[in-house]
Predict the structure.
Amino acid sequence: MDLDKAIKERHSVRSFKKTKKIAYQQVIEAIVAASKAPLAGSIAAIYYVLVQDKEKIKALAVAAQQDFVEDVDYVVVICADRKDLERNYYDRGKMYAHQEAGAAIENMLLKLTELGLATCWVGAFSEETVKRVLTIPDSIDVEALLPIGLELGKLAGIKDLKRVSGSLVFTGNEFSPYIMSMDGSLTLDSAAYKGYTYRNIN
Ligand SMILES: Cc1cc2nc3c(=O)[nH]c(=O)nc-3n(C[C@H](O)[C@H](O)[C@H](O)COP(=O)(O)O)c2cc1C
């Protein structure tokens, strides 16, 4: 699959087939792709916890209060140890760790799409509970949970709908009120960045 196709096809999946088993090797491939994301100062802050234990996966779903998380055979938990980044970059270190995580996660989402696998970036969870379930040290941040499975059916057209209402690009060399729609046309909208969620930018 070429990159454009993967970018276009990637979408969050919250309904997974219950019966199909995914090859372990494919999950590893996705983690390897994630690990090739850029690193601030080449300092790798990101750790991947591959969870397969059914009870632990269930506990992660509870930690997230999101039932679909338990409908998969694998959850990759993205963690960051920002200590070295903070040593080098002081108070920017924490932000760099989050950014490294974001870059790694997006790589992983695209690779999973290419492999025909489905996931959803889950960022809402009790970090304390996730740490307890996976024995993650206090000093480590839990950035995201990525449940990995096979998509159950497809919601036709949902992607297009979402793109109409999403992504604003500010084009005035600053955080400006000009927004660019997906076809490249510009609109003046001083409230755009506050009410972006369902604004039609066509
Ligand atoms: C930082 C972050 C946290 C997210 N947390 C959750 C989450 O906890 N649960 C969930 O269902 N989706 C979560 N999502 C996925 C978004 O809801 C989803 O990406 C968005 O609706 C756009 O849809 P798409 O991924 O299909 O393009 C999160 C996405 C991001 C970037």
